[in-house]
Every structure is written in structure tokens, then in C-alpha cells.
């Protein structure tokens, strides 16, 4: 199972900082940017759950 990093496209973090997670795991790190600031997760719960379910092999 890969490591997924979700960020808001208006957050103050660079792609390089997000990709640094690769140094902390042997799994592949995947990055997904969604519209918004730090609390973007509250605006995109369905999309986030879809990625989680897909990574777990669920078809819902």
C-alpha cells in the first residue's frame, strides 16, 4: 500500500517538502492536491474517501 499525501493547493508547502516523505518510507509516496487551504479536507471528503477506498481495494 502506498503512502498518500493530500494537500490544499493554497497551502504554504512545496512539492519538494511533500516529496520528502519518500525518505521516511520504503513505499511509493503519491501526492494529491485539492483546491483549498489547510482545512481543504472538509470540502472534499468524497474524493479523499474514494482514494482511500481504492487503495484498500474497495470498489465503493
UniProtKB/TrEMBL annotation:
| Gene3D superfamilies on file | alpha/beta hydrolase
InterPro entries according to UniProt: AB_hydrolase_fold (IPR029058)
Q: Which SUPFAM superfamilies match?
A: alpha/beta-Hydrolases
Q: What is this protein called?
A: Thioesterase domain-containing protein
Amino acid at each position: 500500500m502506498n503512502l498518500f499525501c493530500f494537500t490544499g493547493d493554497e497551502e504554504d508547502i512545496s512539492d519538494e517538502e511533500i516529496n520528502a516523505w519518500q525518505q521516511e518510507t520504503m513505499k511509493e509516496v503519491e501526492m494529491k492536491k485539492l483546491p483549498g487551504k489547510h482545512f481543504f479536507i472538509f470540502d472534499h471528503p468524497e474524493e479523499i474517501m474514494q482514494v482511500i477506498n481504492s487503495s484498500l481495494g474497495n470498489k465503493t
